[in-house]
Amino acid sequence: MDGNTTPTTAPVLILLGPPGAGKGTQARMLEEQFGFVQLSTGDLLRAAVAAGTEAGKAAKAVMEAGDLVSDAIVIAILRDRLADADCAKGVILDGFPRTTVQAEALDTLLSETGQKINAAISLEVDDAAMVDRISGRFTCGTCGEGYHDSFKAPLTDGQCDKCNGTDFKRRADDNAETVGARLAAYHEQTAPLIAFYDAQGALARVDAMGAIDDIATQLSTLAANATR
Ligand code: AMP
After folding, report:
1. Beta bridge partners of 40
2. Residue 134: which H helix or E strand, with range?
3. For residue 109, how far is the Cα from the chain centroid?
4. Among 16, 141, 146, 178, which is most buried by a count of CB atoms within 10 Å?
5. Which of 23, 60, 81, 133 is catalytic?
6. Is 96 in the pocket of ligand 1 (CB under 6 A)?
7. Number of helices and strands (H, E) in the chain?
8. Best mutation site among 23, 60, 69, 123 for ligand 1, i.e. most ligand atoms within 8 A of its Cβ?
């Protein structure tokens, strides 16, 4: 990390939760509201795959299988991104850390610049609902706004509400077969982080089964309290 570009006061929020819990949707709303930067390791890895980098080549098959990419690759990608100047506004980590090794590496990275985690917010959901949530989701290929076939269709069919784009994308790993592996990876490797952050006094829990806007209101209050 470049200590010259990241002041010690830059807030760090973590969104924890299984695939489909709404981390990406909520992170985007917090980004808009607070000006923090959403850092999604899934997005960074998908960009690496699309660009054909060495990390992307190593990650591609692992991601398609719904398994976790190696800690070394993900930590290196996150470390590089955190060093970018825009992260001085504060960051919302979406999908990182996902293992205890990553959580410890993050603590080390942040301590190098005197930063700390303001809050780790666990989005709590029922596994049973996640398959439907994930199988129906898609995003605008132009601005990244998220949609869902059943829960959040565009107001005008085929046109993005935010940017009027007409090019929509579905993720290759958002299918019923891969979701099972992704949920298993979450429970085995990521769920233990709830206790990890609880022990640090940084954990907040939010019931994320309700309406997107209600959850956003709760998160907004938590984020405001944690970063002031
Ligand atoms: P996501 O977009 O967060 O659902 O991530 C999509 C996929 O990218 C995951 O199923 C993993 O294969 C990989 N991935 C994303 N973030 C991480 C991470 N922090 N550690 C390991 N693998 C990750």
Report:
1. 94
2. helix 127-135
3. 18
4. 16
5. 23
6. yes
7. 9, 8
8. 69
| CB within 8 Å of 44: residues ≥ 6 apart | 77, 78, 81
- Examine the residue annotation and report whether 171 is marked as an active-site residue of this protein: yes
Q: Is 170 a catalytic residue?
A: no
* Amino acid type, 212: I
Looking at the CA of residue 23, tell me the nearest atom of ligand 1. 3
CB 182 near ligand 1, within 6 Å: yes
193 CB less than 6 Å from ligand 1? Answer: no
Q: CA 186 to CA 137: how far, in whole Å? A: 19
For residues 182 and 169, give the distance between their C-alpha atoms in angstroms, rounded to a whole number.
Answer: 20
Neighbour order of strands in the sheet with 137-140: 146-148, 137-140, 168-169
- Residue 120 CB–ligand 1 contact under 6 Å: no
- Do the Cβ atoms of 49 and 60 come closer than 8 Å? yes
Q: How many angstroms from the chain centroid is the CA of residue 44?
A: 10
Q: Any catalytic annotation for residue 60?
A: no
The token pair at 126 is 């029922």
* pLDDT tens per residue, range 33-86: 999 999 999 999 999 999 999 999 999 999 999 999 999 999 999 999 999 999
Weakly modelled stretches of the chain, pLDDT under 70: 1-8
Residue type, 101: V
Q: Do the Cβ atoms of 208 and 22 come closer than 8 Å?
A: yes
The yes-or-no answer on residue 98 being catalytic is yes
